[in-house]
Specification:
- By secondary structure, this protein is α+β, with helices and mostly antiparallel strands.
- It is 26% helix and 23% strand.
- It folds into 2 domains: 254 residues, Jelly Rolls, CATH 2.60.120.10; 69 residues, no CATH class.
- A 9-stranded mixed beta sheet has the order 2-3-13-10-15-8-7-4-6. The chain has a 6-stranded mixed beta sheet with strand order 1-12-11-14-9-5, with no helix packed on it.
- β2, α1 and β3 form a beta-alpha-beta unit.
- α2 packs antiparallel against α3 and α3 runs antiparallel to α4.
- It is globular.
């Protein structure tokens, strides 16, 4: 655990309306204790890892495709990361039937130095149909993607996700360490286009921070928030909050819900960042300043006055976007990019 980290704000999750209230007031992260303590999966996990595995086996599709398992040697200490010079990764990925993954995790549960085995972000309804009939949450009008994460002792480096995230521990224990989005500079983020799991990650080893190599991480530590979650507990992680996740037991399962409070047709802002790196970053400084003003005018400070001088019927792209306009704009962008 990082020295000096503050506890994440928490409240009881097992009282009526707790989740709805937390979602409505989600200005920051919140731990909801025992939010999913009523789930049969949690009851099985509280009994034993064997009971939890048996419960999951009951839902695995016999005709399901293999899952992608991340596997690494014991020497990595469960850290999903790069190799020493960042030219590659410190793990391999294998396609393995989910039944086999579950049984292998049990086989190594008592081993003092097991290999790391980690199945990340696997769609519940695809691999475990029926699981959500007895183990689910209502998020109101939101239509979340529900995923399951299964593994032994793992350390997932701090990263951001664009969607909001409700992460529910249903077996084992997890430690979650969070930082506000504004700690980007102090977390020493690695490559954007070569990552262990799709999102750029902090290069700092939270188990042993090297403050000579990463001196600004000392400032990030002053903004850290941390919680240890037991089976039944959940944490609400708002969009773009940095989160470092650790599985603390030989068998850990997490179910999470991802959603965005925007229309489905909106693309991820990460695409804009990638394109901006290609088109804006290396401009002469005075041109970058000009484009900063352009983006401020049309994007970050856009309001009713931005296009008020244009007749409403003629505003086109400067009108409020909808699915049709977004589809047309996407087609135009693809044509320009591929020219």
């Amino acid at each position: 655990m990082l020295a000096g980290a503050e506890p994440i704000r928490e409240q009881r999750g097992d009282v009526p309306g707790a989740l709805a209230a937390a979602l409505q007031a989600a200005s920051g992260p919140t731990v909801l204790r025992n939010l999913v303590g009523h789930w049969p999966m949690v009851a099985a996990a509280r009994a034993s890892a064997q009971a939890a595995v048996a419960y999951l086996h009951g839902f695995v599709r016999t005709d399901a495709p293999p899952v992608v398992a991340t596997v690494s040697a014991p020497e990595t200490g469960g850290r999903v990361f790069y190799n020493d010079d960042l030219s590659g990764l410190n793990f391999r990925q294998e396609q393995i039937p989910l039944h086999t993954v579950l049984d292998t995790l049990l086989k190594y549960a008592g081993h003092p130095s097991p290999p790391m085995i980690y199945v990340a972000s696997t769609t519940l309804d695809t691999w475990l149909p029926g699981f959500r009939n007895a183990n689910d949450l209502s998020l109101g009008a939101r239509d979340p993607l529900a995923s399951i994460w299964i593994g032994n002792r793992t350390r997932i480096a701090a990263h951001q996700d664009v969607p909001d995230n409700l992460a529910c521990v249903v077996a084992g224990r997890r430690r979650v360490t969070l930082f506000p989005p504004d700690q980007l500079r102090n977390l020493y983020i690695g490559p954007l286009d070569f990552t262990p799991a799709g999102q750029a990650i902090s290069l700092v080893d939270f188990a042993a921070p090297d403050l000579e190599r990463f001196p600004r991480f000392a400032e990030a530590m002053r903004h850290a928030q941390v919680a240890e979650l037991e089976p039944g507990d959940a944490v609400l992680i708002p969009s773009m909050w940095w989160h470092h996740m650790e599985g603390l037991e030989p068998f850990n399962v997490l179910v999470n819900y991802w959603w965005r409070d925007v229309p489905d047709w909106m693309d991820t802002p990460m695409n804009v960042l990638m394109y901006a790196l290609m088109t804006l970053r290396d401009l002469p400084p005075h041109e970058r300043e000009t484009w900063k003003d352009v983006f401020r005018h049309y994007v970050f400070e856009a309001d009713a006055d931005t296009a008020a001088h244009i007749p409403e019927h003629a505003r086109r792209l400067l009108s409020p976007l909808d699915e049709t306009r977004a589809r047309d704009l996407r087609a135009r962008l693809i044509k320009r990019i591929n020219r």
